[in-house]
Amino acid sequence: MKNLLLLPLNKAAAFIHIIIFNIMEKLLNFKRYI
Length: 34
Known about the structure:
Keywords: Membrane, Transmembrane, Transmembrane helix. About 95% of the residues lie in helices and about 0% in strands. By secondary structure, the chain is mostly helical. The longest helix has about 30 residues, at about 1-34. The radius of gyration is 15 Å and the shape is rod-shaped.
């Protein structure tokens, strides 16, 4: 039962990490252009 609850959380966490990484990368590129 715990595994069934953890799987969606892990997917959500991975998704959030990807979004944060993309935002950070865009900010770094933006600073580079200025």
